[in-house]
């Protein structure tokens, strides 16, 4: 358990609840998101929050079984901020009235103007008379609860900002956490200041605390860690090594589907720079052998996932007597999101992970990054002295080049792909674009095309370049390279890589495409 003051966000299923956590982390405030079903009075007592935020959500407070917080939220004596549905919940629970939308529904940009009475929550707001906010509500508050007063109105929301300042209850109809409420961060800053947060959730403090917790959890037992060379598992490994030294052994499974020079980079970094005990499991023959003749994307993914677990287990055995498995699980992976639609979502791709291993091997998990977002993991990596070139790396999928080689995988295709990818990334770096792009790679297409080079005919593979901008990989847009850049890159690839005579640029966004080809 953390020693910091904690803020509890009760999630009612808004699409943007994670952004609330984001804004708070930027203020160095520790917070956790928990779905409303889980937050009982007993939970509240144990969590002991210094403040509570009630998120937005798609429900109507008067619908049957509408999501509600436990009554204890309003008797804890701590500041509460209700956002959108959270505001409606507060009014509903505290004696106000909420009505169905129709003419008063608002979606998108709106402008809030202040009332004469000032409110500390709004310090820094309204310097220009009104503030832009982002609304997204069907229902609206029609009568505020006793004790509340109005501090801001919009044309369609006479109760855009309401508060009972004596009890530190605040309720707003708009979403301060989104980009389109430009002064929203200021509102959160005021809220946490009013709640008395010290803002001491820094990376430096986190690192020391994480090290202490790892030592406490592990004692003198051995820990194994699956190292992929990606940022998350690398930061986890270095942090754990700092905590327990040689009690940690990393296992790096080389499935033969890595990029040019990748295995060497990982080995040099961890073995030579950090002196972390590392097993280099070169199992490329096994993986490529089993993948021979396989062209179905799901069969590829499942084959790789199965072999990975077998191989990891085999090599982990060499460590002898490990009791813990370390993983670079991040905060977004552990947030329990609230589903109102019910029913399982469709599986688009079977993502590769080492799920199931801990039970199979009787291991307990060490997950020191569970409370962090990706950019916080990068900040921690910097704190631990990992080089920038490593920290800023684009994500690379577990199944590696297998899913960038649609159709059948051959060693020849993999070699061509590695060379082309290295030229492409080199181009991106040379033009100073690497950090602007979320992920970039080459895929080798399962077609050969006719070309003419010199005076001769060629019949070689076509490849496709991909570069996307994204925040979290869930949605993505293609990167708008200049024509000059694309022309120069295509020329370099065809000139420098034997086996490719045609280059395409993939301009599909996600959705409808996905980032990887398979
Ligand atoms: P897609 O292709 O689903 O990819 O749009 C979204 C992001 O996830 C990465 N990706 C994976 N990462 N194991 C991983 O660790 C996987 O099996 C996997 N498949 C895709 C992909 O590179 C992109 O960043």
Descriptive overview:
The chain has 518 residues and is an alpha/beta fold. The chain folds into three domains: 7-195, 3-Layer(aba) Sandwich (Rossmann fold), CATH 3.40.50.880; 203-392, HUPs (Rossmann fold); 411-505, GMP Synthetase, Chain A, domain 3 (2-Layer Sandwich). The protein contains 15 helices and 20 strands. The chain has helices at 17-26, 41-47, 85-94, 184-194, 203-218, 231-244, 262-273, 284-291, 297-319, 331-334, 357-361, 374-383, 388-391, 411-430, 483-496, and strands spanning 6-11, 30-35, 51-54, 80-83, 97-99, 106-114, 131-137, 140-143, 149-154, 157-164, 169-172, 222-226, 248-254, 278-282, 322-326, 364-366, 439-453, 456-469, 477-478, 500-505. The strands form four sheets. Strands 2-1-3-4-11-10-9-6-7 form a nine-stranded mixed β-sheet, with helices on both faces. Helix 14 packs across helix 15 (483-496). The longest helix has 23 residues, at 297-319. Bound molecules: xanthosine-5'-monophosphate (XMP).
Summed up, what is this model?
Homodimer. The chain is of the alpha/beta class and about 525 residues long. The protein has 15 helices and 20 strands.
